[in-house]
Each structure stands twice: as C-alpha cells, then as structure tokens.
Amino acid sequence: VLQHNDDTEDVSLFDAEEETTNRPRKSKIRHPVASFFHLFFRVSAVVVYLLCEFLSSSFIACMVTIILLLSCDFWAVKNVTGRLMVGLRWWNHIDEDGKSHWVFESRKESSQENKTVSEAESRIFWLGLIACPVLWVIFAFSALFSFRIKWLAVVIMGVVLQGANLYGYIRCKVGSRKNLTSMATSYLGKQFLRQNTGDDQTS
C-alpha cells in the first residue's frame, strides 16, 4: 500500500536483500561499490568544474561532461545508493487519473533495523548528500558575482539536481517525525476540547 503526498511510508525495501544482510551492525562498509559511486559522480563534477579551465579550453566539452556527471549522480543516488546505504527511497507516482504524487519511503522499523544499516555508510551517504549541494550553491553565488554568466546554467543544474536528492531524502528521514507531531497535536486538541466540554457542563 502506498501512501502519497506529504506522508512518508514505512516499508521494507527489497525484503530478499534484507534477509541475506541481517548481520550485526558494524562500522565496515557493506556496499563498497555503492559507496564509491555515491561520491564518485558528484565529486567528479565538482573537480571538473574547478579545473575545467586547465583540463580543456572548450567550454562546451566541460559543460557536457559536468552535466553528464550530474545526471549520473542524480540517477545513482536516487535509485541505488539511498536504498542500499540508508534504506531510504523517494519517487514520483502518477495515478490512473493522471495526477502526480510524490512518495517518500523508509525501511520498516524493526528490531533488526540496527543490523541492516552500516554506520560508516550512513556517514558517507549524508556527508556527500549535504556537502556537495552546499558547494554548488557557493559556486552559484561565485559565478553570479564574478559575472561568469555562461556557467550559471551549469551551476544551477548542479544546485537543482543535487538539491532535489537532498530534499527527497530529508523528507524520507523526517517524515515519520512529522506524523508523530501531527498525532501529538491531534491528541492535545482532543484533550483540550474534552476539558472545555467538561468545564461547560459543570458550570
């Protein structure tokens, strides 16, 4: 069952994988390939942007290379590394009426949760996810104030693509807390109404 819009769905992602990877939680990296590519594309895009004037005299070649790296990074982080490294996933769903719904999923919490997520991988995932968009925002201001107008399109694409993944995974991570907040607010509201109703009856 999918839960749409602003809700976060607690689901068990790829059950077969979880059954074979329920090992004691350690600091070791359990998905080295996913961890490598989680950082490779986004770090490579930043390096190419910083060194493009030294690597090539062609602006078009540098721009295409950066856009390809950013696109590969967006796909890899959104579809692969998030679910493997931290058990989170976000995606878009179009229903039969043609309406678009955003779905934010997290691995179902259980007694085995601490055994399916590596602390080292979690640190790598969130560090790369947060640091690189911050760098692209800095690049955007730098390009704007230094009047490097031709680079603005590339930098804005970096902000948008990596910022979208950051936003999506933050929604996956904190969605359950929002649900708890709404439940607490609803409970307090009911208690407040009951108290006022009781006071009216006694008076």
Automatic annotation (TrEMBL):
Entry's Gene Ontology BP terms: protein secretion; vesicle-mediated transport
Source species, domain of life: Eukaryota
Subcellular location: Membrane
Ranges annotated as spanning the membrane: 33-51, 57-77, 124-145, 151-170
GO cellular-component term (any): Golgi membrane
Listed Pfam families: DUF846
Topology term for the membrane: Multi-pass membrane protein
Keywords, in A-Z order: Membrane, Transmembrane, Transmembrane helix
Major localization listed first in the record, in broad terms: membrane
PANTHER family, sorted: GOLGI APPARATUS MEMBRANE PROTEIN TVP23, GOLGI APPARATUS MEMBRANE PROTEIN TVP23 HOMOLOG B
Family: Belongs to the TVP23 family.
UniProt name for this protein: Golgi apparatus membrane protein TVP23 homolog
